[in-house]
Structures are given as C-alpha cells and as structure tokens.
UniProtKB/TrEMBL annotation:
InterPro entries: CTDL_fold, Sulfatase_Mod_Factor_Kinase, SUMF_dom, SUMF_sf. This is Formylglycine-generating enzyme family protein. It comes from Anoxynatronum sibiricum. Residues 52-253 form the Sulfatase-modifying factor enzyme-like domain. It comes from the Bacteria.
Length: 256
C-alpha cells in the first residue's frame, strides 16, 4: 500500500517557488454578532478597518488537487482497497473533493497521512483541550498558511483570478448545484487545479483571534458560491468544528 500511496503523492505534490505576498483583510472594530456560533458569515458589521501585511513565502510543496474522497477514505480505513481504486483511471467517485470536513478533522488527516508515509507529524493535538500546536521543522503533510494559499492561487497572475471564471472554476452559475470531479477545469500557471470554486479550502491560520477567537480561515469559493466570492483574495472564517457540503482542504508540505 505504501508504495502505491507514495506514487500517488509524488504525482500530487508540486513545487511552489518562494516569494512575497501581500495579504489584505477588512476587520470589524465592533464585537462580532451571529445567530449561529459556528457559521462563517457575520450577523452585523460595524466600522471596517483595512489590515495589510507583506509575508515572505518560503518555497514549499502544494497539492495540485484538493484532497479527494479516495485519498481521504484510504488513509482513514488503512486498507488497500481504496488506494487501488484511487489510482484507476476513471474512478470518478474517488476523485471527488472530500467535503463536510472540519478544520480539526483536516489537521488530524494530515497527521495520519504523514505517519502512513513515515514522515514527522506537523501537529501536536491535545485530545483533552483540543489545542493544536504546529512543529515548523516537521517534514510531514500540513495545511497551507493563509498567505501561502493566496500566493499559490495567484501564481504568476496579479488579478483577482488567474483566468476566466468559467474556464477555471465550478461555481454557482455553472456547477448545477453539485460538486465536480477534481481537475476538470484549467489549472493556474503553477499547475494547481480548483484553487477557485468547487470546494472551499481550510488554511492553518486563525482569522482574527481578538474578535473571532478560535475561528480559522478558509479560501477559494465553491460550487455553491456566487462569482464574486471565487477569487484569490476572498477569505471566509469558520469555527474549527464547522463542516458543510462545500468545504474541504488541500495538502501542503514544507520544502525539505
């Protein structure tokens, strides 16, 4: 199983060159109000303040597709059956992006995958408190940071999108109210597919600890999202236990 898994992952992970990315966000100075503590959309907005920071991005590896059902179920089940199907041409069901995955489940999966591949786990997860620590020197699989995700999405482009939205993304106007098989739209210049549309993708970062507490960032838009929400700088937030049928994640690894 390990050799087949390694073969798949070697094909999946692409090198992303280092650089600098400017991340902008608009923060609400008033206390956030919502009728549902796990939802990502605010119930009320006050005066917005623009936050801008320049982040140095070290070269890293990023998956060309979001994590698929095939890979996800393979690692959770620890059997060879799904791995065989995952590598078969035309195994459509296994090539669907996994959805309804919480942030906690995403980081746990990264650790499981790292262990299966004989790599050092990136996350220290306290089962009692739920606290998740990060080991920056680990060589295993992890979630991309907020800045890494935006930088990788834009690739060589400078605009809100790296191409015409109908060519690169499944979104509300063309998805027919459903998720689609990964990799069927055009990739960006670095070979990454579905960075926009299809499923939102969890990132490592807290959104704004002072205002939103434990809420984490997710990026990219989805099959259910309007066009305006599918862009390189579009950011949403969700409680780490939050899960919904258009939210998944993508793998990253630090450069060895």
């Amino acid at each position: 199983m390990k050799s087949r898994l390694t073969e798949y992952l070697n094909h999946l992970m692409l090198p992303i060159p280092g650089g600098v990315e400017t991340v902008r966000d608009y923060r609400d100075e008033q206390k956030w109000i919502s009728s549902n503590s796990k939802m990502s959309m605010p119930g009320q907005k006050g005066k917005l303040t623009e936050i801008e920071k320049r982040v140095e991005i070290k070269a890293f590896l990023m998956a060309k597709y979001p994590v698929t059902e095939g890979l996800y179920q393979e690692i959770l089940s620890r059997t060879g059956e799904t791995a065989k199907k995952m590598l078969e041409v035309g195994a459509k069901a296994n090539n669907m992006p996994v959805m309804k995955v919480s942030w906690y489940e995403a980081v746990s999966f990264c650790n499981r995958l790292s262990k299966a591949c004989g790599l050092q786990e990136c996350y220290a997860i306290d089962k009692h408190s739920g606290h998740v620590g990060f080991e920056p020197q680990a060589n295993g699989y992890r979630l991309p940071t907020d800045a890494e995700w935006q930088y990788a999405c834009k690739a060589t482009s400078e605009g809100y999108r790296y191409g015409e939205i109908t060519d690169i993304a499944w979104y509300k106007d063309n998805a027919e109210e459903q998720v689609h098989e990964a990799g069927k739209k055009q990739p960006n210049e670095w070979g990454l597919y579905d960075m926009l549309g299809n499923v939102w993708e969890w990132c490592w970062d807290l959104y704004d600890e002072k205002t939103y507490g434990e809420y984490r960032v997710f990026r990219g838009g989805s099959w259910a999202e309007e066009a305006r929400g599918c862009g390189a700088t579009s950011r949403r937030r969700g409680h780490p236990t939050f899960k919904i049928d258009d939210l998944g994640f993508r793998l990253a690894r630090s450069w060895e």
